[in-house]
């Protein structure tokens, strides 16, 4: 998998020990859900 950000930035902004990944572009739907729930995102 190729990421668009350096690993250092990824780990700094998401300090967790796991990630969930899905195939496809779900960004618009996730952004809408975050807005409705009052959850921040980048």
Automatic annotation (TrEMBL):
Protein name: Uncharacterized protein
Organism from which the protein derives: marine sediment metagenome
